[in-house]
Design a protein that fits this description.
mainly alpha
């Protein structure tokens, strides 16, 4: 049952509720997973996939059947690797060989790992990792080779970082190191997924000749997460903002969290956003190379979420206090939009780039560069989908409206009517619940006549009552027994 705070929120934001209902009722997956045809170990794999990431799990399970299992296992394998790397309770001498040899562990029947700290979030995945190994050995050899290659590269990169004493003590120093870290934890994922897409004939082979496109896909997601999670990482004694950036604004990294330095902290985070915006054009170019709708949805939805998150964290002081996330309603609306085609995804990026531009301030040292970066994004989208359509201009000259505009006007009108009826439905529900509660109170003996008479007297709250004094309490006087 929804909480009272949620009901009040949706009363004030009916569009949010509308987006959630639309996604739940009207979203039709391109493909649907069929658990009835799966082995018990594969069902276990999807169980742990749901536990590790609900958002990624949803889009993975709607993938083309050819890629459903390979991509799900790829995600679980890398999540297992990441769980070992993140766990600070595992000694380096034990952690390093595990990271460097994880690709060979995938071939060891029955392999499990229970040495993670009890508080490690995805510990259960490694405790039951034998189900992942069992299913991995059944995957097509071409897919296995890709997954093992990426696992080896990522494991070695993580081991190198774990061995870097300077990184562990002082955090990342330069932007180059920052992007290398993002390469190992996210760029390699983009590379592996692209190879899987092309191997299955669901993406243009030309993507393999432009590896920087897949790299940008991973970099953009990872950079957005790092910018958003600064407070959480700081509390866990991790520093991913490069010193090359934060040292321009404060003397010590800890100073970013001092309220006295809020303006400096916001300028620092905006420079991080500027760095992430540099990957946007290549992300959009990459998505143009996807041939299958389910694969397009799989890559487009996280990117749409990322640009919306980037706009949310831009010059937002709350990121230094807590983890800031887009609302569930916004997430559902973005999923509906981005699971259509590249043009709608470009519209999303244009919309949020304009919002970033609107929030930009001349007080920011990076004001000009951020304005240019947002302008470049819009210019790139304009080159793909020009707004000045000659046919449209001819119709406007005649005073006519194109079919596209007519459709948009109809959709806007429908949206407004939907919000109106939704508001009536919510108010009606609240009225029925209130009537039921009042009726139940009346049947239980509530004296509404007394309540109304008190209200007429202007007494809206019950008068204070006090315990009778000791003198008012009769003292029993027992005679001799």
């Amino acid at each position: 049952m929804p909480k009272a705070s949620q009901i009040l929120y949706f009363l004030v934001h009916p569009n949010q509720l509308r987006a959630i209902i639309q996604w739940k009722l009207w979203h039709e997956p391109v493909h649907t997973r069929n658990p009835a045809k799966e082995s018990e170990t594969l069902k276990q794999c999807f169980h742990y996939l749901n536990l590790t990431s609900r958002s990624f799990s949803a889009v993975i399970q709607e993938l083309n059947p050819e890629l459903l299992v390979p991509v799900a296992l790829f995600y679980l394998i890398l999540r297992g690797l990441d769980t070992i790397e993140d766990d600070m309770t595992i000694p380096l001498e034990r952690k390093e060989p595990l990271l460097r040899n994880f690709q060979n562990i995938l071939e060891e029947d029955g392999w499990t790992f229970n040495e993670n700290g009890l508080n490690e979030k995805d510990r259960d995945l490694l405790v039951h990792f034998d189900c992942v190994v069992t299913e991995f050995k059944l995957v097509k050899p071409a897919y296995k080779a890709i997954i093992k290659d990426i696992t080896e590269k990522m494991g070695n990169g993580m081991a190198d970082n774990a061995n870097n004493a300077e990184l562990n003590v002082n955090g990342i120093a330069t932007v180059k190191e920052y992007e290398l870290y993002c390469h190992y934890v996210a760029g390699l994922v983009g590379d592996g997924l692209t190879r899987l897409f092309v191997e299955s004939n669901l993406a243009n082979p030309a993507l393999l000749r432009r590896p920087e496109l897949a790299e940008s896909m991973g970099q953009f997601l990872q950079k957005t997460n790092i910018i958003r999670d600064i407070r959480e990482d700081f509390d866990d004694k991790r520093r991913f903002y490069p010193k090359e950036i934060w040292s321009k604004h404060v003397d010590k990294f800890d100073d970013l969290f001092d309220p006295k330095n809020l303006d400096k902290a916001l300028n620092c985070s905006s420079e991080m956003v500027l760095n992430a915006l540099g990957n946007v054009e290549e992300c959009l170019f990459y998505m143009a190379g996807i041939k299958d709708q389910s694969v397009f949805n799989f890559v487009a939805i996280p990117q749409a979420m990322a640009i919306a998150t980037l706009e949310l964290v831009f010059r937002n002081p709350n990121i230094f206090k807590t983890v800031v996330k887009i609302t569930k309603g916004d997430a559902c609306h973005l999923m509906m939009e981005s699971s259509q085609n590249l043009r709608t995804v470009c519209d999303i990026f244009k919309r949020y780039a304009r919002r970033i531009l609107k929030k930009n301030t001349p007080k920011d040292p990076n004001f000009l560069q951020i304005s240019v970066a947002c302008g470049k994004i819009e210019q790139f989208i304009e080159s793909l989908y020009p707004t000045q359509d000659p046919n449209q201009l001819a119709l406007e000259h005649k005073g006519e409206i194109s079919a596209v505009q007519q459709k948009k006007i109809a959709e806007d009108k429908e949206a407004k009517s939907d919000v109106f009826f939704l508001l009536i439905a919510v108010m009606g529900t609240l009225f029925l619940i209130s009537a039921f509660m009042i009726g139940a109170a009346y049947l239980a003996g509530a004296r509404f006549d007394i309540a109304f008479s008190e209200i007429k007297k202007g007494q809206f709250f019950p008068k204070g009552t006090s315990l009778p004094s000791e003198s008012a309490i009769p003292s029993p006087n027992h005679g001799e027994l």
